Amino acid sequence: NVSALSGVPEWLPDHLQREGIEELYPPQADAVDAGVTEGESLVASVPTASGKTLVAELAMCASVARGGKALYIVPLRALAGEKRAEFEAFEEYGLSVGVSTGNYESDGEWLATCDIIVATSEKVDSLVRNDAPWIDDLSCVVSDEVHLVDDGHRGPTLEVTLAKLRQRNPGLQVVALSATIGNPEILAEWLDAELVDSTWRPIDLKKGVHYGQAIQLEDGEQHELGVRDGEKPTAAIVRDTLDDGGSTLVFVNSRRNAEAAARRLADTVESRLTDEERERLADVAAEIRDVSDTETSEDLASAVERGAAFHHAGLASDHRELVEDAFRERALKVVSATPTLAAGVNTPSRRVVVRDWRRYDGAAGGMKPLSVLEVHQMCGRAGRPGLDPYGEALLLANSHDELDELFDRYIWTEPEPVRSKLAAEPALRTHLLATVASGFASSRSGLLEFLDRTLYATQTDESGRLERVTDDVLDYLVVNDFLDRNGEDLQATSLGHTVSRLYLDPMSAAEIVDGLRAADDRPSALGLFHLASRTPDMYELYLRSGDSEEYTMLAHERETELLGSVPSEFEDRWEDWLSALKTARMLEDWASELDEGEITDRYGIGPGDLRGKVDTAEWLLSAAERLAGELGLEWAPAVREARTRVQHGIQSELIDLAGVRGVGRKRARRLFETGIETRADLRNADKPVVLGALRGRRKTAENVLDNVGRADSSMEGVEPEGSVTVESS
Ligand code: ADP
Fold it and tell me: Which domains does the chain have, with CATH numbers?
């Protein structure tokens, strides 16, 4: 019983009871027995929805009550806000909760005043690199979804960050929360932690596969669906669940598919809603529209009105919350979500459908099956404790063979063991430099000692491998002037410090430095976009058929603009170099004010991809500007200009105007066309002209004038000048 909890602050048991938590779930009780409220480190490998968050809360509150400070590491930025919102419930008892995301370089000093801090692993890594003063005050660190140490891209950061935090704070309590994995013992060994390894769930789960007319469950049970002519399997399942008074969570493999599925499944749901539900949903839709007036917001609201919604990391967190609440209340009957957020959707439902079990993988250049672990996490969302007899999670098969394959692959199979990905060179390049630069090691042996604290070292039997890769990477870092080596001793150069603080892959920095040094004339925007695009920090666009010829020609036409030597067509790096040129050309189109839709068509990408590349280019170019300054190269202004152009998607002449808050690329262009070319012009312009250029939107015009520092910004009674389509404000 929660009132018998020891080690926790005295308000906590009452608080839990008010939240409807009377008894600890068995794995939670095991965690308490293992000492999680007394400062013991713990690895909890427990199925989804079995109450891991409460284990973390018990540990954090107990640690804070003993005078400490807790850090909760989330895997995704989108989840940080959600966790903060959960922990804010403790504020009424005097705890303060802060979230740290955003810029890598911000110093995070205000966080020193918080009792509980929520941050992504990248953010924590960066705070450690920048020596945030409160890091030493931590007494408890929670690592959520710690099985992601297995992720090749982000795992090493989490691994190294935990190792650094433990090195800096001996006695630090680490609470690592994991999905059920094949080898939780190794995590416990690595972290010197107690282990709670449980398959207990608050409600039974039956997994199965849908094929043809029937659902086949793992316990042998079969269930006829009666799929109608022309009806998609997912729609049939949603209908069947609805007839039984339940709701369905559908996992698909991309944001776009999530949106399309919600739209389509709403057709199934709409006619089955009661008047009361319709009214409630109309309210939710109105709240969604209030959050923002973007296209996504409108798409979401119109699906919600009809009883369905989508959920992915591209949504505003307010949107996600509204969707989750409405789904929990059972007003929404279907939510289609992407796997990245499977962990974040704390919304049990009668049935879960894993519609897509393959996902596009950029690095592999094609579709890849999801891991057993991921699929089990999604399945784990099925079943509402206390409401359903059991939860049902279904995969969809298109053939009899696929039916068998899905049973073999996902239903009869245990989740994979996790494996450290640290020994890969790109990961080590970044982390070894950072480890030396931030003072965690100052010699080769010190580095190896540090690395000995990682999961990799705990896990590998191949002695010498890490040492070999380390030596290769050290050579690279010394040759490129990021580290000074003096016998055994290692020290970061000033360039090395800058690179580590900028959070750049050293190889990206080396590429940028070489490129800038190779320029004997002021580099053009295309040249700089290309330079940024060929670094390993940029995911390049792929070459499609016909692209090779097109971009080879472009390379010849604009050879003088491209920095450094042009590789020959027979070199290995040619293909990459050409992909980078295609990416650069796309960025140039964007910075030439080409329409977003036209760009996404031309390059065969989604608006989100364009945004992603633009953000990365902006970040890389601001790093390049810093590096140019650091090295005393004269091209910093040219880099800044290219950076500003890509940031706003504008030609040079709009740079002054587009910097005004509320003036994007389109508004800047329209203002410019009326003769308002600078901020000074805007401060003195005739109001009807400004209003005309801003399409009659009075509120917008007033904001813009306020932002540019004009005292009399009121647009009351002003009529827009020029032939404009007037939109309402
Ligand atoms: P996980 O993080 O393991 O996926 P959560 O921590 O999100 O799962 O918990 C799932 C749900 O179970 C939450 O709504 C939580 O409030 C509820 N819950 C957790 N522990 C208990 C408990 N001991 N008794 C009742 N409900 C609980």
Answer: 2-197 (3.40.50.300), 205-411 (3.40.50.300), 425-502 (1.10.10.10), 506-649 (1.10.3380.30), 653-729 (no CATH)
